[in-house]
Specification:
The protein is an alpha/beta fold and 288 residues long. The protein is built from eleven helices and ten strands. The protein has a five-stranded parallel sheet with strand order 3-2-4-1-5, sandwiched between helices. It has a five-stranded mixed sheet with strand order 6-7-10-8-9. Helix 3 (72-84) packs parallel to helix 4, helix 9 (242-253) crosses helix 11 (273-287) and helix 10 (258-269) packs across helix 11. The termini are far apart.
Length: 288
């Protein structure tokens, strides 16, 4: 069954989000654009061809241009030339949303400078998928992409983010996960909550939650494979010693719900309610 429509696209560049795991995680609008764009461009042309085959979208003798970090200076003028001719171009990264820890930014700025249209066909994004299921606060977060390869630069990055109050999100390789967790434990402390999301949306999706001490110990002897999204809880900058906060929360939980306990203690100590709520949840969970 064909899931796309034959439509006439307006001239311009279309950033099309594609699946990060399951081929079915694609929007109908994305299929329409991929089926009808005058020109196709991709970070990985083989991946795009496979996706087109799965969804029975014919190439129809259309041009397919490879565009990635290593050939951008050569491929970009070709794409801009097609836009100047009034053509529509669909661009996909290897997986997920283009430009999010993927190539495309220089292409975007070139298209904007030339005053051509740019359109986003939103869809899968690993960081959003991980944030959605991670269990850490979602009202404020900071995405840092891939951590630096250099160990000292990685430590510096962690130290720069040590006092950030929102959830931190990183992409990480499986082979570096152990070292990254050890360094995170050293910088952020053993009680800081974190989540390791592996192979998210794929067949062997795995999500591990705990504090950094627990997660570092768990992965210390594991041969991990697959793609990783690491989430680390934001800082809790209590003016009062945290152990005192925890004791008050324990006392409150004897007669109040988690929600009411968090609200009461947060008000008493003039600290963020969501931070106290996380403490109350953990105490309640440990006590059950």
């Amino acid at each position: 069954m064909v899931n796309y429509k034959s439509i006439k696209l307006s001239p311009g560049l279309y950033f099309v989000s594609t699946p990060i795991g399951s081929a079915r995680d694609i929007t109908l609008r994305a299929l329409d654009i991929l089926a009808n764009a005058d020109v196709l461009a991709a970070e990985d042309t083989r991946t795009l061809k496979k996706l087109l085959e799965i969804h029975e979208i014919p190439m129809k003798n259309r041009i397919l241009i490879s565009y990635h970090d290593h050939n951008g200076s050569k491929a970009r003028p070709k794409l801009l030339a097609h836009l100047e001719q009034g053509k529509s171009i669909a661009y996909t990264s290897e997986a997920g949303t283009p430009l999010i820890a993927d190539p495309g930014f220089s292409l975007l700025t070139g298209v904007i400078s030339a005053e051509n249209n740019v359109t986003s066909a939103p869809g899968p994004c690993a960081l959003i998928a991980a944030l959605t299921v991670g269990g850490l606060p979602t009202d404020r977060f900071c995405f840092e992409g891939f951590l630096p390869n250099n160990k000292s630069q990685r430590e510096l990055k962690f130290r720069q983010l040590q006092s950030y109050r929102g959830t931190l999100i990183f992409y990480e390789s499986a082979k570096r996960l152990k070292d990254t967790l050890v360094k995170a434990l050293e910088i952020f402390g053993e009680t800081r909550q974190a989540v390791v999301c592996r192979e998210i949306t794929k067949k062997f999706e795995d999500i591990k939650r705990g504090n950094l001490k627990e997660l570092s110990a768990f992965y210390s002897d594991k041969n991990v494979k697959g793609e990783i999204v690491l989430l680390i809880a934001g800082a809790v900058d209590f003016d009062t010693d945290q152990s005192k906060i925890e004791q008050y929360v324990k006392d409150a939980l004897r007669s109040m719900s988690v929600k009411d306990s968090a609200e009461a203690v947060a008000l008493a100590f003039n600290v963020p309610r969501r931070d106290v709520y996380q403490i109350a949840l953990k105490i309640k969970s440990d006590g059950d």
